Amino acid sequence: QSVLTQPPSVSGAPGQRVTISCTGSSSNIGARYDVHWYQQLPGTAPKLLIYGNANRPSGVPDRFSGSKSDTSASLAITGLQAEDEADYYCQSYDSSLSGWVFGGGTKLTVL
Amino acid sequence: QVQLVESGGGLVNPGGSLRLSCAASGFTFSDYYMSWIRQAPGKGLEWVSYISNIGNTMYYADSVRGRFTISRDNAKNSLFLQMDSLRAEDTAVYYCARARYSSGYYDDYWGQGTLVTVSS
Q1: What pLDDT is recorded for position A58?
Q2: Which element (helix H / strand E) includes B59?
Q3: In what helix (H) or strand (E) does residue B110 lie, and over which residues does it extend?
Q4: Which end of chain B is less crowded, N or C, counting CB atoms within 10 A of the terminal residue's CB?
Q5: What is the per-residue pLDDT for B73?
Q6: In this complex, do B45 and A101 lie within 8 Å of one another by their Cβ atoms?
Q7: Strands A86-94 and A72-77
Q8: For residue B108, which residues of chain A lie inside 8 Å, CB to CB?
């Protein structure tokens, strides 16, 4: 059971918009620690997608966006493409655990 | 460009030890915190440890504290993870990553990972 809760899977057709939620608590996201998102394509290492809740590293398309509110965060992907099919993870800091935590991951399927 | 290359993984008996290495290039290694993150087969990501840029501050996940030791050699641009008293549940791909800070640390570059298998 992960401290940060993500849906196990989401899906969408090419061109559509999907969102992935990341629900935490008052000891992590709600304590104003930033949320970061990673994309892991099949068989590869994770890649930073969003940092500091809503910032994109250089090279990440603006189809990807992040937001945060209260004890949860969301990753939105617009104009879905086949190459977006991957696992997505959120990450934050948890003061109760005194450590960094990941969500359980969400598998995105492009129909 | 930033490159991180892990090595040292392999098969080890329960209770045994293993030392992972990560060779860094393409950036000023001594300016950055570094981390280890692992991923058990078919499972999600689990943060393992962070080390400060000069190596004087270390953080560990509860699951490895007292058994794993993170260290670095800034002269050789290298990061290490000494893993002792290994258990079956430590079986995973271990990634080294470069850490950045934004109200909490995150990892902006990752290596390709090295597989550690703990089994008799």
Answers
A1: 94
A2: strand B58-60
A3: strand B105-110
A4: N
A5: 97
A6: no
A7: unpaired
A8: 48, 51, 57
pLDDT in tens, B61-119: 999 999 999 999 999 999 999 999 999 999 999 999 999 987 788 999 999 999 999 99
Q: Do A51 and B44 touch (CB under 8 A)?
A: no
Residue stretches of chain A with pLDDT short of 50: none
A78 burial level (CB within 10 Å; 0-12, 13-18, 19+): middle
Half-sphere exposure of A76 (CA within 13 A, CB side): 12
Coil, strand or helix: which one is A84? helix
Nearest CA in chain B to A52: B102
Provide the token pair at A56: 């994109």
Q: C-alpha A18: how far from its chain's center?
A: 12
